[in-house]
Amino acid sequence: MDQLRPLAEDLIARNVAVIAAVGGNNAALTAKTLTSAIPILFTSGVDPIKAGHVASLNRPEGNVTGVSWFSGELGNKHIELLNELLPQAALIALMVNPNNPEAGFYEKSAQDGVRAFGRRLLVVKAGTRGEIDAAFAMLAAERANAVIIAADPFFPARARQLAVLAARRGIPMIAAVREITAAGGLISYGNSVTDAYRRLGVYAGRILKGAKPSDMPVDRAIKFELVINLGTAKALDIEIPPSVLARADEVIE
């Protein structure tokens, strides 16, 4: 948050009409501590109340509102998908960014999933490029059958690195965002970021026309996308079940 503070202070000094704080909770929380006058719009992957953005979803009060997609709850769904794709997988790894305060929500959801399906979960932490390399070395040493990349703004920026390492180690990879699957991951399932940002843009437009954040309930991004990379599946010798293919929003050949 210390790195974000100068950026937020600069925007406030410019007296901008609205601050759109995206890419995790820290940006919005930083801006919130610095101004109660300029409207702030956030995107959040966890419960905005628990994150400290608002006291109520329906009546946010103050100068803050935004869009939530509750990505912290996706861990369970990703375990469920892996159960369909790799029913014999005994050890599933979960890669989280230790610098992200939202990581605990995702880990809890994944733990619930492995208990439900009788699997084991190996949590590895990576918050730098070098730590990603070390994490995949650990996955290989532990013979993990698959790896889930937690929903986090850090990982899409390292999509190519993740895909190369997963291919080199022969480890199926599932993520929350399309970018990682497009780079070479096996499958992704999560909220449509495009839809969430479109909703945020609508809110920004309303504020520019005079609306107050306190009168705008926190919106919920409800559009999900399932993306499958068939080229990666072929390379890993994984046959995607027809029931999963039929649900796909996009299939990458």
Structure, described:
- The chain has 253 residues and is α/β, with parallel strands linked by helices.
- It has two domains: 95 residues, Response regulator (Rossmann fold); 148 residues, Response regulator (Rossmann fold), CATH 3.40.50.2300.
- It is 42% helix and 19% strand.
- The chain is built from eleven helices and eleven strands.
- The strands form two sheets. A seven-stranded mixed sheet has the order 5-4-6-7-8-10-11, with helices on both faces. A four-stranded parallel sheet has the order 1-2-3-9, with helices on both faces.
- Helix 1 packs across helix 2 and helix 6 runs parallel beside helix 7.
- The model has no long low-confidence stretch (mean pLDDT 92).
Compact summary:
With 253 residues, this protein is of the alpha/beta class. It contains eleven helices and eleven strands.
Key descriptive features of the protein:
253 residues, alpha/beta, Rossmann fold, 2 domains, 7-stranded mixed beta sheet, 4-stranded parallel beta sheet, 11 helices, 11 strands, 19% strand
Blueprint of the fold:
Blueprint: H1 5-13, E1 19-21, H2 25-34, E2 40-44, H3 48-51, E3 64-68, H4 74-85, E4 91-96, H5 103-117, E5 120-125, H6 129-142, E6 146-149, H7 159-169, E7 173-175, H8 178-183, E8 187-191, H9 193-208, E9 219-220, E10 224-229, H10 230-235, H11 242-245, E11 250-252
Parallel strand pairs: 1-2, 2-3, 3-9, 4-5, 4-6, 6-7, 7-8, 10-11
Antiparallel strand pairs: 8-10
Helix pairs in contact: 1-2, 4-5, 6-7
